[in-house]
């Protein structure tokens, strides 16, 4: 109930009320954080961001979701974004930064935010910084989910899925009892189109070309924290906690 600031508390069941009060007390002690998560597909950003969000009482700003929400809500920026999309054009950086600006005003973003999927280019990073500067804030930390391409390939191309339930397996880390077959139903497993070596290779090339300069840009500002994203998720979580709890 992150955005329940305006809720009439008499309407809320007492168990939920206690949970919400405890959450607000905990959140009141947390320092504000404005974070960017950067990493290639499969590096674990999606696993870590909900944990960071809950621990530090932040809102999660995924630019794709925000664009869709702005379009659905027909906000002035959403209408402009839809016009661009309908023409098959990319939504301009200024529009995306404007949508982030709007989203940051929500109650759930009071303690700060996690940005995921943006900025992808140095120009976007500069526009984001200019917008934050106008508000008197800045990015506190950029978490770089650093991982070797070869490890990613093993992680991603080994994933197999049972289509009707979404049950996932991994040929090395969590194999089915019979190769290519779901343990429960005995039905064949499939591999997602995005999980093939060829698709991964082109996505990684795009990531390195566009996004590595963004890491350099923020490194010069001294706000990048390198994570060892090849480690097991619990170890990465511990590393994130340590990075974000340290001062500076």
From TrEMBL:
Top-level EC class as recorded in UniProt: transferase
Occurrences of domain Adenylate kinase active site lid (ranges): 159-194
Enzyme Commission number, as recorded: 2.7.4.3
Keyword annotations: Kinase, Nucleotide-binding, Transferase
Organism domain of life: Eukaryota
Catalytic activity as recorded in UniProt: AMP + ATP = 2 ADP
GO molecular function: AMP kinase activity; ATP binding
Record PROSITE patterns: ADENYLATE_KINASE
Keyword Kinase included in the entry's annotation: yes
Database matches in InterPro entries: Adenyl_kin_sub, Adenylat/UMP-CMP_kin, Adenylat_kinase_CS, Adenylate_kinase_lid-dom, P-loop_NTPase
Family per record: Belongs to the adenylate kinase family.
Function summary: Catalyzes the reversible transfer of the terminal phosphate group between ATP and AMP. Plays an important role in cellular energy homeostasis and in adenine nucleotide metabolism.
Identification of the protein by name: adenylate kinase
